[in-house]
Amino acid sequence: MIKEIYLAAGCFWGAQKYFDQFEGVMYTEVGYANGSTEYPSYEDVKYKHTGHAETVKVVYDDEVLRLESILKLYFFVIDPYTLNQQGEDKGVQYRTGIYYNDEKDLPVIRKIYDEEQAKSSEKFVVEVKPLLQFFSAEEYHQKYLEKNVNGYCHISGNYFKVQEMTDKGEFKL
Fold this sequence. Notes:
Largest sheet: 6 strands, mixed
CATH class: Alpha Beta
Order of helices and strands: EHEHEHEEEHEEHEE
Strand content: 25-35%
Strand order of the largest sheet: 7-6-1-3-2-8
Radius of gyration: 15 Å
CATH topology: Peptide Methionine Sulfoxide Reductase, Chain A
Number of strands: 10
CATH architecture: 2-Layer Sandwich
């Protein structure tokens, strides 16, 4: 079955490149989610305090890649403790969040979130909310790190080379 999940992981360029590499991911798109205006531009999000988060839409085949695995991969590359910042990127648009459009996904999201949170005594600041809206980012942002191989990303380039994922949803670099 084809499903989708929306993940805010700081700058969306790296998150898109990271998720594109996994078997079962059919399509990704970067955009702006859960803000206060319709059809924002990058400049609006960056300078006009629209409240949107830079987000990657991940469309996947859940018979090949389960939501549990996607979320474990997500938690592997984010800093879940820092509010409105990932790497050098600071601002509400760089917050972390898991946005869903299918209520049936919420128990799985909560399970993985709680498992990851249990590994630390420090409180996570990752949002878990329904997707209110998603607006596609400008074309020059789509697959940005493929077009600009030396582009900045807070996600280490090592994570763009995942070697293997087990049937238990674990992975090796």
